[in-house]
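User: Please predict the structure of the protein below. I'd like the answer in structure-token form so I can feed it into my own downstream comparison script.

Assistant: Understood. Taking the following sequence of 189 residues as input:
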Amino acid sequence: MSSLKLNLGCGSQMLPGWCNVDLYGAPDVRWDLEQFPWPWADGSVDEVLLSHTLEHLGQTPALFIGVMKELYRICRHGAAIRIVVPHPRHNFFLLDPTHVRPILPQTLEMFSRKVNLQWQAEGIANTPLALHHGVDFDLTESRSRLDEPFHTMFREGRISAEKLDQMERTMNNIVAQIEMTLTVVKDGP
């Protein structure tokens, strides 16, 4: 059985061996990712790439949650969802009028059952979206890609990780993009 890999919102970046999906151009499948249900069977997808796509989807909470629910529905247990987004405090995000939703690792953790249960146990008031919507994703990787000159300064030891963390939380144009991986968690295959 061959694996199904979806390159969602591919634009002109067609990947060989993947099902390339976009609303525009000539992808393998033309589809509006804000129209549900998506045209793939439950549990049929092994891997998803959303490279500079997720920030364009879900201007309303209902649409964004719909996207997350569809990702969960179509993916098998253990499927990897690789996400690349511009940092919401970078001009790459701010200057594009089609960017409708900031995405941070903490945004995606709201769709983790384990994290939701931990919040409940600790009395934290974050919305337990995984529990509310019957989805479960583990954030298994998150990496910030620094913009210049900060990448060089960090590499050369001229700025500490602690200082960069503080700057990322308070200043614009420090982190250019965030690369994250979600792993789909389901009870069965």
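That's the full token string. The mean pLDDT is 96.
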